[in-house]
Design a protein that fits this description.
- The protein contains 1 helix and no strands.
- It is mainly α.
């Protein structure tokens, strides 16, 4: 089957890329938050 690039196909591909990018950004933000929490806990337990 030949690959047909319809306007709709392009839109969905673009949206998929945006969604993937957003989920990566969210994931990174969550990891950063977790690391800050871990650091905060370590500082509190050391004090």
């Amino acid at each position: 089957m030949a690959h047909v690039t319809s306007p709709l196909g392009i839109v969905t591909e673009d949206r998929k890329k945006k969604l993937a990018f957003n989920s990566v950004k969210t994931e990174f933000h969550n990891i950063k938050k977790e690391m800050m929490n871990i650091n905060g806990l370590q500082i509190r337990s050391n004090a």
